[in-house]
# Entry
Amino acid sequence: MIDTIVSNKAIRLFIVMAGFFVANALIAEFIGVKIFSLEQSLGLEPLSLSFFGVDQLSFNLTAGVLLWPFVFVLTDLINEYYGARGVRMLSYLTAGLILYAFAMFYAGIELTPADFWPQSHISPALPAAEQLAIRDKVSDYDYAYRLVFGQGLWIIIGSLVAFLIGQIIDVAVFHRIKQYTGEKLIWLRATGSTLVSQFIDSFVVLFIAFYLGADWPLSLVFAIGVVNYLYKFTMALILTPVIYLAHSGIDRYLGTPLASEMKRAALESG
# Structure
């Protein structure tokens, strides 16, 4: 059985893409607790944008945005070669694994730490001044663990709901465009479906996590949603050539007859 799976190019390809899809989505959720300045990370001065009456907005983004563009590309590639069912299966699996991971994080948070562990990051061998400097930054390892892994329930719910809605919309838009264009205009169905789905995603996650969960005013939700979408819009355009390169590489790997048959079957199953 395993020899049959390993020797089948289509199955091998699906396993590899599925692995990267799930891994990227999971890692994006975990590192997303950190907020970074895009402009300052690039050595630029922060912008001062204004939307919906909210001033001094800049690209302060979650670290998870570094990985989500790769999830977008993988979504379109799986859509192209394995159809809507392939994307939906992986999306539901990923959401389930994210829930499982956060459940384990919360279980770990509730464990009673060993007596030595909260201060274990401060080596007694260090000079007293350096120990004090470390203690000023992180005084309690267990408390830091709680802060990093203990994301709020509304944020988790918002992220998962937005992810699933975005994936479902991406699949629908992708296949609707492909029904009209056929094999032509890869950029239109790939980039177009991402732009539509991520527009919805950008506002759903903020609405659930911060309007329902933290009583943010709608003006702030819309303003930050616009900033987040501007980043995603730009990344979707930048990654368009990557999609063409990936298509070319996959077609060469599978061979033209198999690749064409898989695309036809994917469209019919969608």
